[in-house]
Amino acid sequence: MTFFRKSAFFAAGLMASIAFTAPAFAGKADDTLNVAMAEEILNLDYNYTTKREYIILAQLTDSTLFDLDPATQAFKPAVATGYDFIDDTTVDITLRDDVRFHDGSTLTAEDVAYTYNWIINPESESNASGTIGRWLDNAEVTGPNTVRFHLKSVYPLVLRDMAQRIMLRKAGTYDEGGVIDRDAMASDLIGTGPYKVVSFEPGQELVLERFDDYFGEKPAIEKIVVRSLPDMGTQQAELMSGGVDWMFKVPLELAENLGSTPMAEHLSGPDLRIGFLVLDAGGLTDPDGPLTKPKVRQAINHALNKSDMAKYLIGGSAEAIHTACHPAQFGCDQNVTDYPYDPEKAKELLAEAGYPDGFPLEIWAYRDKPAAEAIAADLEAIGIDVDLRYVKLASLNQARADQNIPAYFGTWGSGGTADTAAIARIHFSMDTDRNLSGDEALAETVLAAEQTVDQEKRKELYSEALGKIADEAYWAPLFTYSANYLVSPDLEFPLDPDGLPRLQNSSWK
After folding, report:
1. Element spanning 233, H or E
2. Pairing mode, if any, of strands 136-143 and 507-508?
3. How does pLDDT run across 206-230, given as a tens digit for each residue?
4. Is the N end or the C end of the chain the one with fewer CB atoms within 10 Å?
5. pTM
6. Contact 118/132 with Cβ under 8 angstroms?
7. Right CATH number for 271-482 from 3.30.360.10, 3.10.105.10, 3.40.50.2000, 3.40.50.920?
8. Domain at 10-45+184-267+484-508, CATH homologous superfamily
9. So what CATH class is 66-178?
10. Mapping DSSP to helix (H, G, I), strand (E, B) and coil, where does residue 345 land?
11. CA 506, 508, 509: angle at the middle one, nearest 5?
């Protein structure tokens, strides 16, 4: 398949078209990192939010029990100094004694236990309750700096959830005096992170200042100002005129064009999101349809030029993949069957399966229309008559729930979690409508990987599951995504392999 990119002198045109000069915040000059976000920031409490913007902000204002090394995926001490599994469902956590909240008070074991017990309290209605509630029975204070966590069952991702999902709050924060206030930290956040809130205008601007009593490594930059700028054109103009130092979720072509000017630098980093084509191998839409035949599914895999899709349509650091997970994720075994791009082989397999002239196939998609169209074109090239249904996500979800989708182009970001568990269960357990394979044995293997804390055993189980998915060609894995940033030439912004922006690690050149 041939791909074309629009040629443009966009950056030059933009520079010529800027008819105003934004306020000269001069980030490096006054040690202020000016950040632009398209999403409105309305709530500072990540215990009650989910979007990626809020994850980024929580890294600045809050601390968790553990940190996760983005390069090695190893757990590092943070608020907790260590842990000890007393048995498979009991873990003791030891805390530092020098962690300060932004109001100057010292964090205690009571604060930690309160936070976790509140999250699983049905009255909390926390966005984190679904994650923590599936494994935590209760948290118990066992000493001045120790907390015991009682688990409902064996769960290997306990430390991961502690490292990524729960922000620690002072005891009584959400229900002081018996009065429930779920918005207690929405605006006037009192966290324990490297930056404290100076001011916050919901939907407009958040001002953060370095917290001198932070227990960990102090950030290099004194102040961070986050502005909600929904219009990408406004963000561009601000960056070019010096009013913004950092942008993310930048379209590739724009990032490349603006990055070629002296006013900005384009950074392309990894993203845990992957793209894939899911096939109705289980015959949910047609019990004896073409997709129930392994050779047909293998043919579809061979027909897709995923390398060109990654290079020309996704761009940046995107790469072709052959596994039903991101290569950076724990347990994502790369030694599974691959199907190299080979249209002739694909045609042979179709003929062997009894479809020498192809067959009609309805494919659903909800995002990245050029990629969806490329998938359709590649399959048309081997004789499959594709009806591409490009719809809103809600429509796709409903049709999938009704078992009316024979194939769909999907993506999954795993919530930024570099563990195969974050993608396997939701797509291959028997209680999810995302699973079109109908393979109960596969579902049991995936579930077994979440029922042991033995990491080597988990690797073995995921290797078995991923091997089965590849051999049976239940999916056609396509590509990883790329995160594109535009930053000030003065800014040193590290790109971590898990794709999560950590602004607290930024510095000036």
Report:
1. helix 232-241
2. unpaired
3. 999 999 999 999 999 999 999 999 9
4. C
5. 0.82
6. no
7. 3.10.105.10
8. Periplasmic binding protein-like II (3.40.190.10)
9. alpha beta
10. helix
11. 120
